[in-house]
Each structure stands twice: as C-alpha cells, then as structure tokens.
Amino acid sequence: MKAIKIVSYLILSLIFLYILSGFFLIPYIAKKEIVKNLDEILITKTKIEKIYFNPLTLNLELKDFSLIDEKDQEVVGLKTLFIDFRALKSIEKKHFHIKNILLEGIYLNIIEEEKGVFNLASLLKPTKTKEEETNQKEKTKLIDFLVSKIVLKDTNIDFTSFTDKKKYNLHLKDINYTIYDFGTFKNSLSSNNLQFKLNENTDVKISGGIKIDPFIAYGKITISNLKIKEILDFDKSLFNFELNPEANINLALNYNIDTTNDLNIFLNSEIFEINDLKLNQNQKEIARLNRLDLKYFSFDLNNQELNFKDLTINDLYANMILDKSGVNFANLLKEQKGEKEIKSSNQENNENNLNNKPWKINLENINLNANFDFHDILNNSKLNIKDIKAKTSNINIVDDKINIKGANLVTLNTKYIDNNNKLNISSSKTDLTHDDIFINGSKVEILNSALKKDKITFEDQKLKLKITTNNLGLELSKLSIFDEISFDLSNLKLNNFILEDKNNNISLSSKNSNLKVNNFLLDKQNNISINKSELYDTNVNFFDSNSSFDINTKKTNLKISNFNLKKDVITIGQILLKEPKIDILNMESKLKIEAKDINLDLNKLVSKENLFKIEKTNLNNPHISIILPKSIQTKDEIEKSALKNQEVDKKVENKKTKRVNFGPINIKNMTLDFEDKNLPIPFKTTISKLTGEVSAVKNRANSTSNLEINGVVDNYGVAKITGIVNPNNIKLLTDVNMKFKNISMKNFTPYTAKFVGRAIKDGKLELDLNYNISESNLKAKNSIIIKKLELGEKIESKDAVSLPLDLAITLLEDSSNTIDLNLPVSGNVDDPEFSIAAIVWKAFVNLITKAITAPFSLIGSLFNFSEDEINSVDFNLKESEITPIQKETLDKIALILNSKKEFAISFSPSFDEKNEKEKIANQRALNIQKYLIEEKSIDKKQVILEKEIKKTSSNIDLNLKEIKK
Predict the structure, then answer these.
(1) What is the span of the domain harbouring residue 948?
(2) Which segments cross the bilayer (predicted)?
C-alpha cells in the first residue's frame, strides 16, 4: 500500500514537474537558447517578446519575434507563431501530426545592395569550415508528417534594391495564406488559398491543391491590375526604353503540375490582358498598345502543345526609327556581359535538341488593328501605314511547318516619302486575303490570294514620272515559293492606270484592264515561263507630245501562249490580237488612222541579243481607215517638222540594229478606207476584200520580199499589187506593179476640183503602174486608161491649174471615148527635190498643155501621123489646084474630122505678096473647102474658112478647133 502511494506521489510529482517545466521552464530556456544561438550565427540582433507552451494541449506560441540589423532596422519580424501538436494521434498513427500552424504578422525587409548582394543572404556570420570526408549513406525513409492547417496572416514583404541609381521598392502586402492537410501521411492532397497585394494596385489570388509525393499541384492564379513598370523598374539597366506607369496586366491562369510519371505541366488561361501600354525612347513615343486581349491560352508540356484562342490586339502603334545606332526596336534590350556566350550556349542546346519531339503551336481567331511609322534618318525617308487591320482564323505551327488559314490584311492609307531621291509613293485602302498559307522550312505555298487596292500613286520628281492606279484587283489561285516561284492562275484587274513621263513628254493610260496569267514559273536559274496570258476588254491611251501622236485602243483582247525567258532569250509560241478598236491621231497634222475588227495571229516569236524573229503572221478581217485632215500648217511649220523627222531618222540610223526575220505575212479580207479632207470636196474611197501574202521580211543587206495583194475598190473596181522589194531599203531594189481596173472616176471629183477646178460627172479608170528602183535610180511606167470621161461643173479652188480640159479630153479620146496615156517617170530618189507624185503631176500637166498648144502633135499621135503631115497644106507659088500632094494632107485631115465630129478645121487664105497676087489666096482656100466638103463628105460645120488673109506664105496653115455645142 505504501509502495502504491509512493508511486502515486512520484507520478504526480513528475506530472507536476512536467506541467511546471512546460509552462515556465521550457519557454524560458527555449527563448534564451533561441536568442543565444541566433545571435551567435547571425549578424543581426534577435528579439523575442515571449514564448508560451502548454504541456497539456501541446500548444506552442511565440510572440513578437524580430531580427534587428546594425542600423536598428527590422529585417525579419513575426508577431505570432502558434503551433497545435497532436502527439497522441501521431503515436497512434505512427506519423508526426500538427493540427494548426498560425503565422501572423510576418514581416520581411529584403534589401539588395549596390553590388547585388541581398541582406538576407548575408545574415550568417562568417565561419571557418573544415573539410570532412563523408561516406555516402543509404537513403532512409523519413517519418510521415501531416499538418492539418497552416495559416499565414497579415504578412508583409518589403523589397528594396540599390543596384540602380534610383532606389527600387516593391511591397507585398496583406499576404494571407491558408493550406489544409499538408504532408506525406497517407499521401494527403492539400488545398491552399493565397491572397496578397502587390504595391498599391495589384491583387493576386492563388487557390488550388497540392500533393507532396509524388508532387502534384493544381489551382488557379488570378492577377488583377499588375503594373508592368513596377516590375521592369527592378533593373532598368536591362532596358533601353521608358514604360508608362498606367500599363497593366490582368491574368487568370489555371495550372496543373503532375510528377507521377514524368514532369507534366498544363497551364490554361481564362483571362490575359495587357492594357494602356506606351513605350518611349529618347523622349519619343515608339510604341503604344491600347489593349491586348487573349481569351484562352493553354500550355501542355506532356504533349508539347501551345494553344491561343481569340487574340485581339487593339490600337497598336509602332514608330520604327533607323539611325546610326541601328533600328530602335532592335535596341530595346541592352546587351549584357556574357550575353554572347549565353547565345552560343543556347545555339548548341538548340542543335542538340533538333531530334526532340517538335512543339505544336495553334492560334485561332487573331485580330489586330494598328498604325505603323518608319523613319529612316540615314536615308531621309519615311513610311506611314494607317489603320492596319489584320486577322486570321487559324495558325498552326509544328516544328518548322506553319499553316495559316483565313488570313486578311486591310490598310487605310500608306505613304512612303524618299526625300533624297524625291520619290513619293502612296496608296489607299489595301485589302489582302489568303485562304491558306503553308510554310515548310524555306518552302512557301499560298492558296487563293486576293489583293484589292483603291488607289496607288508613284511619283518620281527627279525623273518627272508619275504613275497612278485606281481600283486594282489581283487574284492568285496557287503561289509556290521555294527553289522556284510559281503560280497556277493570276487575275489582274485595273480600272484606271495613268503614267505621265514629263521628261519624255509621253503619257499612257488604261481603263478596265483585265490580265489573266496561267502557269507562271520562275526557276532556280531565273528563267521564266508562262503557259498562257490574256489581256481582255482593255482601253488604252498613249500620247507622245514629241511626235504629237495620240493613240487610243478600246476593248483590246490580247492572248500570249507559251512565253519563255531563258538566259536573255525570249520565245513566244503565239500572240493573238482580237478585234480591238484603235484610233491614231497626229495632233500636228491631224492625220487620223482608225482600225477595228483586227485579228492578228503571230506564230513562234524569238528575241535574242541580235535577233528578232516571227515565223508566221496572219492578219484577218482588219478594217483600217486613214483620214487626211484639212492642212493648216504654214510653210515654216512643215519645214520644221521635216527637219525634226530627219533628226529622228539620224538617231535611228546611228543605233545598232538587231537582225530581224519576219516569216510570211498573210492578209485576208482586209478593208481600207481612205478619206482626204484637205480638198474642196472631201474625198473618200474604200478598198475591201484585200487578200494576199508578203513573203519573209529580213533586214539583211541583200534580202528581198515578194508581195501579192488583191482587193476590191469601192463597189466595182479591182486592185492587184505584185512585186519584189528590198525591205531594208526600197532604194536598193523595188520592182512593183500596181493594177487598178474599173475604178469610178466620179469618186476623184475632190482631187480634180482641187487641182483643175472641175468635177467629174462620169467615167472609168484603169491604172497599170510599174515602179522599178535600182540603186536609187527610178524607172516608172504609168499606164492610164480613162473611159467615157465626162466632166461636171466648175469648182473654185486656189490650187487649181487653168487648163482647157474639155478640149484636152476631146483631143485625147479615141473613137470609143477612151483616153490611153503613158506617163514614164525617171529620176534619182536620193535627190532632195525628187517626188514621184510631183513628177507624175508635172507630166500630166505637160501632156494637157501640149494638147492645147500643139493639138496636131497630140491628135496626130492618135492616128500615127506626125505633126508636120497635117498642120498645113503646101502649095507651089502661083498654084491653087488640089493635086495629089495636097490630097495626101487633106485626106488625113478628113480621117481625123470623120472620127472627131466635135472638132473643126479652120484656115485662112494665104499668099506670098512678094511673088503672088491676093486672088490666088482665096482660090486656094476655096479649093480646100470644096475638096473636104464635096469629095470627102466632111460636115460644113467642121470646115471653117476664116476671113483674114495672110500674106506671108503660099502654104495654108491649119488650125484645130472644138465645135461649140
């Protein structure tokens, strides 16, 4: 019994001692030892207000713990530490168990000194260390532990850095963190919740779960209004720009980390925003972003996949500047020491990772609107692009393979100014779309591209060249860029195109241009091939003020097949020009040429350095009109124009000519209209159904070309031209025959009115013209046959030559009312005064003049008589009888008068007053009259005896007169 009491007293004493020491001794010793040991190892001074321990409940509480540095500043502080142990449960379950841990009022004052040393890292006092050999021990399993609840309450962290000239402060305030069931016992999955404030504006929330072994963590991180400048200001030496304080980031990120097998990290965001971002460099704004909004982002380490969805970038502005230091955006980050070595190391790592599984990057629904400025200070140029809108439905990146779907780029205005070269380029409203873009390394393939531009202006002030386009549209069905560049189909539409070259005084404009190109290829050797290209329904105007030519084409349709460019050699399989309407106007002379319904077919063209060749040319159904206007040029203007043309010819002669070889040219069903308004009455004629062939045309010295062309003149006339010419110089060799039959003379009234002052009422014309030129010497035969020519009314003309045409026609016509003329022409075409038209006209005028002044010569030639045979009747002195001698002359006169009823013979009595009497003169005249009327049956009207008596000769002179109707 006594023993039991002793044991009871002993147990009670031990319990009492345990309780007494737990409440008083242990806290005292613990406080003293903690302060002592910390002061021994730390350079700071340790303060603990009080430690409480409840030996019954195993609760430990520490109050007002702090570490004070030599400047009497608190480095680490803790208001309350409370630990609630669960010893019995720990023994029962064979693990270390703590129910609650409360850390309240933690304060950390972290300071980074100028040399980059942190105060917390240097809290330990320096100690001598001894090298000790240690044997590796087998790893033993640690006891499992479990903390049911850990609470951090009202924690604050101050971070101060003195590494920069300006002190940097960062404050983490109101940190509250709660974690449940943290430990390795039963591999518990703990949940946690962290909240704190970064400086004055940023709220951070982290909630989720965590597992120790294997390590698993998941949860959500929410960051609101993170001021980017407050983070970047930590080390300004890294950055070569200034950021505005309003720039902020909002983020809601879900995370999942699992190390059960391998490290697997999966991140995805619900919110990612960047707002109100402005970058300044050298006191200039270089970038601005109103808002970047990414609706969804995911990072999958296991599958190596990145996904971005619904990315919107609003009001981005970039101001790129190039100066002596380079491009400003390339210098945003300052190069640090050792950066080159790091880059080299990264390069080696990248090379080592080439065989690793590639990452997959997917971007969906991206939208961007921006403005861009580029100022090239070195070259004194500026580029400005306003209101850029870019979007794409999908971008997929796997290793070096990129696929972009539904890409669209729209810009409002683009301006480029090059002040050094006086060059201005501007465009308005550009719209570029691509259905699919495939990039595989250096290979690019683009499907179904379309470009639309409202207006483009190109102006080179140095060259005085300006190009303007309106409503440009370009479509490409398949573009491939690799070793070769190719596309399957291209459509170019251009509503208005204007080129003005003020240096050369030319302008070119087009409307409604449509160009289609099939199967374009640019290979490795820079050779180009195009299967087919087509220009259709295009209107073009070309004006050259130097030559005063204004050329207009409407509805031009041009097809080019099998175009190839290889080593400066161009080959074309076929060129087709179909039914354009072409108007050519010389602004000086007002000469006008119109062409329509042209079908031109050029086959197999070759262009080399010294050769241009067309194998065959077909010209079908062209209708060409040539209109000569009323001439208003003065003589001086004509001479100046001729001098100008001579200068141009000299320039052309001085140029080195390439060899030209045109194969046969076939002409079919050509219509030629000719109109001359430079006449009192406008002249117009039509040559239709012109068909023929011109043989090969070559520019070799001795080459020749044969030609044969047939056609219809007006309604009932025919024309045929045959011959051979030297195409390089017709002066060396020309032998051409031109035949015209059944040509209506009535149509030539405008010319007869101008040059002889008479209209033509009726008549038919046949021409047989032979022109032979050999070494500049011309021999021409002009055979002119006019049938049943009838003159009309007189017409006033200042250029008309006064000729008695009625008499001339009467003299020239034979019994069938046909005039048959031969007008030979000869001369040297190198003579500056030589002109075929002038020579022919002069020969014609001489012929008419001769008919009037020497009618017997002309009319005699019609009957194969000489003029001397019929211009007088010869008598011997004192004779008056008609003997066989006189009869020979009078019979010839009778023959002429019988065939020319419209003519009469007139004569006067004549005698030699020195040797004869006047009586014999009258007798001679009466005998002639009697012989012609009575014996030769000549109409009395055709024999006219004049009253005047001549006294100079015994011979009677005859005169031919037209009988007045």
Answers:
(1) 867-962
(2) 7-30
